[in-house]
Structure formats: C-alpha cells, structure tokens
Amino acid sequence: MRLTLDSVDLFYHRVHALRELSLVVEDGEIVSLLGNNGAGKTSTLSLISGLVKARSGEVTWGEHDLTRMRPWDMVGAGLIHVPEGRRIFSTMSVHENLLLGGYLVDDAQLVRDRTEHAYELMPRLAERRNQQGGTLSGGEQQMLAVGRALVSGPKLLLLDEPSMGLAPLVVKQVMEVIEAINAEGTTVLLVEQNARAALKIAHRAYVLESGRVTMEGPASELAQDPKVIEAYLGV
Ligand code: ATP
C-alpha cells in the first residue's frame, strides 16, 4: 500500500509548520525524512498517524483516508508510530512492555510468536526480559520501543529519531534492526537528524526545510549531493 501526502498544509495556530508538503512512500521501502530542528519532520509523522490535522491537502495509505481514520483503526491496520523519546513503561518489565504492543491483537499465540521474534532480532532484550524497562540503557530502550511496535504487526512503521542520544555503535545496531524489519516486509518512514546513518539504510529520502520539501531522491544520490553533504553530513 502506498502512503501519499499530497500538498499538505499544517498550522499550529499561526505557525505554518508544513507547507504544500507532498511525499510518497512505496510498499517495501525505507524512506527517510531529513532536516534540522523545527523543519517539520515530527509534524509529518504526527499528521500521518492522526495526532494532528492538516488544514488542507490529502493523506492516504492504500485505500485508507488517514485524515478520517481513527488512531486505533490505524494500529489495527498495521500503521504503527514509534514517537520520539521511546515512551516505554519504566516500571514494567521488558516482556510486559513487548506484550503491550499486542493490545489490539486478539490472537494470543500470534502475540507470543511476534514477541519471540522480537527477541530473536534483538537478543539483548531477551537477556533482559524480566528487567524493568526504566533500568535499560538508551539503546536498549529504543530497541524495546521498536520491539513493542513489532508485536503490533506493522505494515508501515513510522520511526521518529530512533538514533537520538545514542552512541555511534548503538546507532548502527538500531539501524541494522530497522533494516532487518524492512527486509521482512515492513515499510519504514524514518525521521532522522542523523542523516549519515539514515541515508545508509534508506532507499529514498526527502529533505525538509521550514516545512517544505527542498530535495528528494535515491538515498545514495542524496548522500553524494554537495548541498546535503554541506548541510547535513558535515565534512
Ligand atoms: P525536531 O527535530 O525538533 O522535532 P522537526 O523537524 O520534527 O524538529 P517539528 O517538531 O515538526 O519539526 O516542528 C515544525 C514547526 O512547528 C516548528 O516551527 C515548531 O516550532 C512548530 N511546532 C511543533 N509542534 C508545535 C506545537 N505543538 N505548537 C506550536 N508549534 C509547534
């Protein structure tokens, strides 16, 4: 199912956060949204998952009109948003946090299977399954947030800054998990300030500046673009 944002305008009172924003995510892709603080990346994800409403424009996912779909119906259909800051439950165990991802899934066996699969992809979580979420390292908490999303059965996964605050080696591990999830058939829209890490795993990317798309293309091409290198990759 293709995700399409067509000429979307979003306001927070007088702040014009997204300006005639259009983008497409095809089935099976990893698409990255790059841009500095305040460029509109988080707003784009919030719009897709229905947390904020556009003033104009269209947001569709396959047959679904996402501007009208209720959030729990989105989750049920496989549209899963992992917001910035992880938001795991710190006094619950790793295992309980994972099981929560299955709260809309009726089939208990399926939830167990997906939980085991999350442990296979992220063995650190398996080692810490009885530990309280709040005692995990930043990287492990990020893995847990991704694991919980996996238990929901994502078809389209929206990830907001999964690398935030993590050491380079841990960023690499998180990116490898995202790649593995994608290789198993989940489409990924990845918001990142860490352009270098994101462009390594993305198929395509969009650069946002002040709520507009200013560049787009295959990730490998953007990674070579002098403007991208200067603004987002450093030298
Ligand atoms: P960051 O990496 O800091 O989250 P971002 O690229 O995700 O940046 P957004 O958070 O989407 O950017 O913000 C886009 C614009 O909208 C910014 O000018 C921001 O100040 C403004 N904005 C975001 N959320 C709100 C809000 N709840 N109320 C008012 N303005 C907001």
From TrEMBL:
It comes from the Bacteria. Residues 3-235 form the ABC transporter domain. The keyword Nuclease does not apply. SUPFAM superfamilies: P-loop containing nucleoside triphosphate hydrolases. One of its GO terms (biological process) is L-amino acid transport. Keywords: Amino-acid transport, ATP-binding, Nucleotide-binding, Transport. One of its GO terms (molecular function) is ATP binding. PANTHER family: HIGH-AFFINITY BRANCHED-CHAIN AMINO ACID TRANSPORT ATP-BINDING PROTEIN LIVF. Belongs to the ABC transporter superfamily. This is ABC transporter ATP-binding protein. The lineage of its organism: Bacteria, Bacillati, Actinomycetota, Actinomycetes, Micrococcales.
